[in-house]
Amino acid sequence: MPPAAPELISPRSPRVAAARRLARRNARGKERLFLAEGPQAVREAAAHRADGASPLVELFATVEAAERHADIVGDARAAGARVHLAGDEVVADISTTVTPQGLVGVCRFLDTPFDEIVAARPRLVAVLAHVRDPGNAGTVLRCADAAGADAVVLTDASVDLYNPKAVRASVGSLFHLPVAVGVPVESAVAALRDAGARIVAADGAGEDDLDDELDQGTMGGPTAWIFGNEAWGLPEQTRALADAVVRVPIHGKAESLNLATAAAVCLYASARAQRASTGCRSVTDS
Length: 286
Hints:
Elements: H1 14-21, H2 25-31, E1 33-37, H3 39-47, E2 56-62, H4 63-68, H5 70-78, E3 82-86, H6 88-94, E4 103-108, H7 114-119, E5 124-128, H8 134-146, E6 151-155, H9 164-170, E7 179-183, H10 185-194, E8 198-202, E9 208-209, H11 210-216, E10 223-227, H12 236-239, E11 244-247, H13 259-277
Parallel strand pairs: 2-3, 5-6, 5-10, 6-7, 8-10, 8-11, 9-11
Antiparallel strand pairs: 1-4, 2-4
């Protein structure tokens, strides 16, 4: 007798409808839940632990994806998530991507209280002030994670951290380091400065050159980088809060760098300087 076909969750299930609503910001805020799509994000969500628990509460998977990523499905179950096998059309309906990868997780919010970040006296922080593009926000978060930053802070004027595009762009890094949200930029700067960080604003029109900063040895201490809006940079009142306003030098003919690229350069510059000052190997050494 052939094995029974797996039972699929109905497209009309309340669980499917509830997951679908999380594409909207007001629903995410009300439920304090968000979507994590694709194998990498779901794997990291299942592995993450906050107070002993994983943020992954549900997983919708096509039969094909469940077979192809049996290890991830197993990790999700081990993390306590409810796993629903679903038809391709159901997962596509929940997904916010054009080409769904067959796995969509529902996760609890996991932002960290800003006071906890400050209390840990971080050495490297990325502060996203007035960043409105979710893809850029997620990519900067990924860069911060790769550079070994201790935390990321999104100010109250920045995009929703849990926007599906931001979550995808972070490629799992959202689950790797503390992120605070909704912090007024003035409060973030004051608290990070009190915690011992030098406040450096990244701006293409900055008075100081990043190469000069590195040559002068000013980047080796605790640093909080402020990154601004993709189109119009940092407003003057935010620039005025910083201890230095630094530009990434353009040695070629490019007009400028986009936000995420500039953030990667700045964060890696700090990471290398900090490791050199403490006798650790460079982030670019093999």
